[in-house]
């Protein structure tokens, strides 16, 4: 595809970072002190075969730096990838919030976004079944605002006190550190069965949402209720949503497992490549807003993080757009050192009494102190605000600021009592003054006690294919649990959601069929099903199978038509180099059958060519069969049609044959559907 300009390099954050960027190309090698060195591969020794000398300062500096290059990985969200971008609001949100970055549609706010898996270590695979993080740092003129979201709108627990417990339970078991990046083991499901508030999150985790096709095709949810506060001091409860312009799409489980072996960086590479090609990912920001007077107007507690606000009851208002348009320059300096915190807010955005949110407000800063070596992590370039900061905090590890003057306290007279607090009119943050009364207790409100109505709502909202995915996921995950008692507890627990679902799971697990009472909720929320998402061919990638002697003129027109529709492609053949058509037109080969796999594409287009031997034929046949099994679109032209005929695929949904403009239009429509679930797959 033709390349587009890469990002906007004129925003304040880019200009701020520019002073820290160093290009070492065509430069002389120096020590960290700037001394030019004449040798970088041989240590200083006493004689050619003698011992290394301690006076070799360059060796000592180089080795010491290497020994200290790694910092502790995040306990959760360790594996991630990130990009720069910008946010623009569509209309002023002045009636709801005084946050300045949500006022002027003509202002673009620089952002940095990090996507991540939750459970796995840094070296784990991208396509594991897991919750995904979607954290956004807004570099606003009032300070940094961090919107820390997940790709699922609820969480396992209701209180931050339990966060260490759920993480300990889902992480690899401590006696052997197995399994990696997976909840398919005893301790996780034992936690679930004995902490039934987790039921709703587990339903989402067993759904296709847990294996997204791409970070570009993944929602983000703020989970917690926050507050918007306007200039008049009026507050509204708010929940945040990121909605991808490409729709919400997922992998199938067999495909996800194979991708983990073929390309464990699949989601990382997908995001990176899309931005490099100029196909900038876009997400719209939506908000659900509830007036304070309606806080208790629902059949659930709006402060309960295991509950959603159904969109049919509280519509999502679209207020702005996020565009990711520039990849990072250095993974460690930016992606690895970025520090998010839901407590980083700006005037106009405030907290609620959600007990899980309250726990996070402590935990995030505490985590950064050990990961990033002390209290000055805000001075690392990727974390530094674009507006100046002034306070009486001093010293500490890695302090970058050189504070002048001798006053570092408040109140003072030596510096005219500066830096001085700002009034609310001057932009000072003033906490929302909520009236709070009650005894000091360790008890959860009864309004948090219903754990199964919303999981049933979620189940009712799923399509038949999504329901089968959930049953299969439970069967796989709990099937790895060795303790039969825990298996039975899980089956009995989810009978409270849907008895038929739990009975099918019990059969697959060899457990006793449950006899409990399922939730009586009959309501559904169509917005929860991925079947109702945006469907577009834009941003998709297909594999094109060619052999020498293909119909080059017609094929080039078809490939150009796919490109114009926003579909990327890679040429696959039997060997690297070029593949030559009937009219001696050459196309560069991107991959051989050995260096790629059908699971890495959204569809296959098979064309073939002349004099195809059995090796090529059989490998191409594998690609077609795998794509068919995973319900992907398959196109065929010219000699490629015989593969579809011999595999009895013609006539199935998503199978397109022919050439010319009509073929392109039909194939693009098939690609846009993503999966063709009505296909008969044996």
TrEMBL record:
Its cofactor is heme. The keyword Protein biosynthesis does not apply. It comes from Oceanobacillus bengalensis. Heme binds at residues 74, 114, 163, 360, 364, 371. Decomposes hydrogen peroxide into water and oxygen; serves to protect cells from the toxic effects of hydrogen peroxide. The lineage of its organism: Bacteria, Bacillati, Bacillota, Bacilli, Bacillales. CDD domains: catalase_clade_2, GATase1_catalase. This is Catalase. It comes from the Bacteria.
């Amino acid at each position: 595809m033709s390349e587009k300009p890469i990002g906007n390099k004129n925003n304040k954050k880019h200009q701020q970072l520019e002073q820290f960027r160093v290009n070492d190309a065509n430069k002389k090698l120096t020590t960290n002190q700037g001394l030019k060195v004449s040798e970088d591969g041989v240590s200083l020794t006493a004689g050619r075969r003698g011992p290394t000398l301690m006076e070799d300062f360059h060796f000592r500096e180089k080795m010491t730096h290497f020994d200290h290059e790694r910092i502790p990985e995040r306990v959760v969200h360790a594996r991630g990838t990130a990009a720069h971008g910008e946010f623009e609001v569509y209309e002023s949100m002045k009636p709801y919030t005084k946050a300045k970055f949500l006022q002027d549609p003509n202002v673009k706010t620089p952002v940095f976004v990090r996507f991540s898996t939750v459970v796995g270590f840094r070296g784990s695979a991208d396509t594991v079944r897991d919750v995904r993080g979607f954290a956004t740092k807004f570099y606003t003129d009032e300070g940094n605002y961090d919107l820390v979201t997940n790709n699922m709108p609820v969480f396992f627990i209701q209180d931050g006190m339990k966060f260490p417990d759920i993480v300990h339970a889902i992480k690899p078991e401590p006696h052997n550190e197995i399994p990696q990046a997976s909840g398919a083991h005893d301790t996780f499901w034992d936690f679930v069965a004995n902490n039934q508030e987790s039921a709703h999150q587990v339903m989402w985790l067993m759904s296709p949402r847990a294996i997204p096709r791409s970070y570009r095709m993944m929602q983000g949810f703020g989970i917690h209720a926050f507050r918007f506060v306007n200039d008049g001091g009026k507050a509204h409860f708010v929940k945040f949503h990121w909605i991808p312009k490409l729709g919400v799409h997922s992998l199938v489980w067999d495909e996800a497992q194979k991708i983990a072996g073929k390309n464990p960086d699949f989601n990382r590479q997908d995001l990176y490549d899309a931005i490099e090609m100029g196909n900038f990912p876009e997400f719209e920001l939506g908000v659900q807003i509830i007036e304070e007077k309606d806080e208790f107007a629902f059949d659930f507690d709006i402060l309960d993080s295991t509950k959603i606000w159904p969109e049919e009851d509280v519509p999502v208002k679209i207020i702005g757009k996020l565009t990711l348009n520039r990849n990072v320059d250095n993974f460690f300096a930016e992606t690895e050192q970025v520090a998010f915190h839901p407590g980083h807010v700006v005037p106009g955005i405030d907290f609620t009494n959600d007990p899980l949110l309250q726990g996070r407000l402590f935990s995030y800063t505490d985590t950064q102190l050990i990961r990033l070596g002390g209290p000055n992590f805000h001075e690392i370039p990727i974390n530094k605000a674009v507006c100046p900061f002034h306070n009486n905090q001093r010293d500490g590890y890695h302090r970058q600021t050189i504070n002048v003057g001798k006053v570092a306290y408040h109140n003072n007279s030596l510096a005219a009592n500066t830096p001085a607090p700002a009034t609310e009119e001057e932009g000072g943050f003033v906490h929302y003054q909520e009236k709070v009364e009650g005894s000091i207790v360790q008890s959860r409100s009864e309004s948090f006690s219903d754990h199964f109505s919303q999981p049933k709502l979620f189940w009712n909202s799923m399509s038949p294919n999504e329901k089968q995915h959930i049953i299969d996921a439970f069967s796989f995950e709990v099937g790895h649990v060795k303790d039969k008692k825990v298996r039975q507890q899980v089956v009995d627990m989810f009978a409270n959601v849907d008895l038929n679902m739990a009975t099918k799971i019990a059969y697959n697990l060899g457990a006793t069929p449950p006899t409990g009472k399922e939730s009586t909720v009959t309501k559904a929320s169509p917005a929860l099903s991925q079947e109702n998402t945006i469907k577009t061919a834009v941003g998709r990638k297909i594999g094109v199978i060619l052999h020498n002697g293909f119909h080059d003129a017609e094929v080039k027109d078809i490939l150009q038509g796919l490109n114009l529709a926003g579909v990327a492609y890679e040429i696959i053949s039997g060997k690297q180099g070029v593949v030559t058509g009937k009219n001696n037109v050459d196309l560069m080969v991107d991959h051989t059958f050995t260096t790629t796999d059908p699971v890495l594409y959204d569809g296959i287009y098979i064309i073939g060519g002349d004099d195809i031997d059995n090796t090529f034929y059989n490998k191409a046949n594998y690609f077609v069969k795998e794509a068919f099994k995973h319900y992907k679109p398959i196109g065929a032209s010219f000699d490629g049609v015989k593969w579809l005929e011999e595999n009895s695929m013609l006539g199935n949904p998503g199978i397109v044959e022919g050439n010319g403009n009509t073929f392109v239009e039909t194939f693009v429509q098939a690609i846009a559907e993503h999966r063709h679930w009505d296909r008969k797959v044996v």
